[in-house]
Specification:
Strands 1-6-5-2-4-3 form a six-stranded mixed beta sheet, with helices on both faces. Strands 7-8-9 form a three-stranded antiparallel beta sheet, with no helix packed on it. With 334 residues, it is an alpha/beta fold. The protein is built from 13 helices and nine strands. A hairpin with an 8-residue loop joins β8 and β9. The longest helix has 18 residues. The N and C termini lie close together (5 Å).
Length: 334
């Protein structure tokens, strides 16, 4: 699970390092900074006194003492001044320099708060976008588990434009179903409904289906299992294994299981994550899901959000997870 957005108190997160959104003195303060110093104990302050402060955008490392982590990486985010004082670049530097220290110390995991989004006044939606972008770019190059820790729902803000666009799409597509019946007809579209956590089907009339591949190719591939189809698609799309699993937000060990097991049965989220990683269109995505025993349905808000991003040709899995989290849906690849 390379990037996971979680709701938690960062002082309770078990990771090799947690990141402290500090001030320039590194001598403690309010918010996340104060909470980390309180949980770590007075030894953290004593070590911080030896560091000589920290410039905005830079990062320094200390031991974690009483925290359930090995290290604390202290970084100083910018104070929001309207966006005209290099704030975005400085905030990006906070994430990049903290991650560089994590690499230097050979850490396997690191947990970030949403830097500068509290008392420093950085707009929460912009702070979130910068965090996702910087961490996502890093994870496409390096193997590490990164947690973005959100204390509560109020501290997490998707951009209003994107939220409204997805909400409108859901309202337009969502089909409310009664689980007491199994099959119905809705605007010439058959929908098979099951209870939650079972397989849903969304079967379009044959006359309306858009087959973008030759019939003979489809017939040759009817016996493919999920792993066989996935590996074939990776080759066809010109991706390496590493590009595929990184863009799917899935770790190398998980991918190795898929590659080595011809009968591998993925979760629906894993199958969709690889469809996103390989930038499959909606028809190809449905085909890959069928090999795993799943389907997309308009009776599932999760499925509709996935469909929205595919139709928008936005295949950035980190941005998709950002939206899924905002709508209280399970994330992809984690």
């Amino acid at each position: 699970m390379p990037l996971e957005i979680i709701r938690n108190d960062i002082t309770k997160v078990q990771a090799d390092a947690i990141v402290n959104a500090a001030n320039n003195s590194l001598l403690g303060g309010g918010g996340v900074d104060g909470a980390i110093h309180l949980a770590a104990g007075p030894e953290l302050l004593e070590e911080c006194r030896t560091l000589g402060g920290c410039k905005t955008g830079q990062a320094k490392v200390t031991k974690a003492y009483r925290l359930p982590a090995k290290y604390v990486i202290h970084t100083v985010g910018p104070i929001w001044q309207g966006g005209k004082s290099n704030e975005k670049k400085l905030l990006e530097d906070c994430y990049r320099n903290s991650l560089a220290l994590a690499l230097e110390y050979k850490l396997d995991s690191i947990a970030f708060p949403l830097i500068s989004s509290g008392a420093f006044g950085y707009p929460k939606d912009q702070a979130l976008k910068t965090a996702i972008s910087c961490i996502g770019d890093f994870l496409l190059k390096y193997d590490m588990t990164v947690y973005l820790v959100v204390y509560d729902k109020a501290s997490f803000h998707l951009s209003q434009k994107l939220y409204s666009s997805i909400k409108e799409y859901i309202d337009d597509k969502y089909i409310k179903t009664d689980p007491s019946w199994r099959r119905g007809r809705y605007n010439d579209t058959f929908v098979v409904t099951e209870l939650e956590d079972t397989v849903f089907s969304h079967i379009e009339p044959f006359s309306s289906m858009k087959l973008e591949r030759k019939l003979e190719d489809l017939l040759e591939q009817t016996d493919e299992g999920f792993s066989q189809m996935l590996l074939r698609l990776i080759d066809e799309k010109g991706k390496t294994d590493a590009q595929a699993y990184k863009r799917a937000n899935i770790d190398r060990r998980h991918f190795s299981k898929i590659r080595n097991d011809i009968d591998y049965k993925p979760s629906k989220g894993t199958a969709i994550a690889f469809a996103i990683a390989l930038e499959l269109n909606l028809d190809e995505t449905k085909d890959l899901l069928r090999r795993a025993g799943f389907a997309l349905t308009h009776s599932s808000r999760f499925d509709i959000i996935i469909e929205y991003f595919i139709e928008e040709e936005n295949y950035n899995i980190f941005e998709i997870n950002e939206a899924l989290f905002a709508f209280d849906e399970k994330l992809l690849g984690v």
